[in-house]
Write a structure and sequence with these properties.
The protein is of the alpha+beta class and about 270 residues long. It is built from 11 helices and 11 strands.
Length: about 270
């Protein structure tokens, strides 16, 4: 049946890939497994894409679409493995809302894959199938606090650890849905967070806005003691920053963190208790 649908060469390729457990492959694999060369190999891949047998991750790299699923046109395999394959370098990590997803810090599905990398050869946003891949550029000195985790039985990806995820999201809340979302994530995983490491990461990052946002959130959630807050507070400067840049600043709440608090203490608490 497979040969009738794909033709003998296409069937040979897909069968061989499955036999060696390789669902992500490139043109060199096509050449090796079929004996085709150059344009003949890429033409075969193009025909398989048109028949929704495979999907293109990037030029010359593909993923097999499992045929037992219904609407196969949207399938691209594991999102985070695809992200790793797009970058094709260790200079990356899954970050922000996507890292929150991998650390079980979200309460609803994440539909965009966020990748932090110093490599600027990618467009800032790209689509693979119907999935959005958002690239966040940074310098290499910011790539720390990264670990590897299993996302399938056989595949690992690089992702910021919980503490670095919180720091990244506090610095760029637009990539995690805002301050309330990272507040919820912090609360969900409060028992797993190393708060000493979190403070050290916050100071290492070297941005006052992170210290102020973190201090304001922790004070209202009451998850650390007064000494912890005091040690954070002595690190702040006199410049005011907006707590959540995604929201209006018409409402402002008094606080000791020298931050434009456009989310009130009750809203912070209610976000994790209701």
């Amino acid at each position: 049946m497979l040969q009738k649908t794909l033709g003998p060469t296409g069937a040979q390729l897909i069968t061989s890939l499955y036999n060696i457990g390789k669902t992500i492959f490139d043109v060199r694999d096509v050449e090796k497994l079929t004996g085709l060369r150059g344009n003949s190999a890429t033409d075969l891949a193009s025909r398989l894409i048109k028949r929704n047998i495979i999907a293109r991750i990037k030029p010359g790299k593909y993923v097999i679409i499992p045929q037992e699923i219904g609407d196969s046109t949207n399938y691209i395999g594991n999102w985070y493995v695809i992200a790793r394959e797009i970058v094709n370098s260790r200079d990356y990590y899954v970050s922000h809302y996507s890292a929150m997803d991998l650390h079980n810090m979200v309460t609803h599905p994440v539909t965009t894959v966020y990748i932090t990398t110093p490599k600027r050869e990618y467009s800032k946003r790209r689509f693979v199938g119907n999935t959005v891949y958002e690239f966040i550029y940074t310098n290499k000195q910011r790539i720390w606090g990264v670990t590897e985790i299993w996302v399938t039985r056989s595949e690992k990806v690089r992702v910021s650890d919980i503490e670095k995820t919180i720091v990244d999201c506090l610095y760029r809340p637009e990539y995690c849905g805002g301050i309330i979302e990272i507040t919820k994530g912090l609360w969900i995983q409060r028992g797993s967070i190393d708060f000493e490491k979190l403070r050290n990461y916050t100071l290492k990052f070297g941005k006052y806005v992170i210290i102020k946002r973190l201090g304001y959130i922790l004070e209202n959630l009451n998850v650390v003691d007064s000494n912890y807050l005091r040690e954070l507070r002595i690190e702040i400067n006199d410049e005011y920053y907006i707590l959540d840049p995604l929201l209006s600043t018409e409402e402002r709440y008094k606080n000791s963190w020298k931050i434009v608090a456009n989310i009130g203490p009750k809203e912070i608490v209610n976000s994790v208790t209701t």
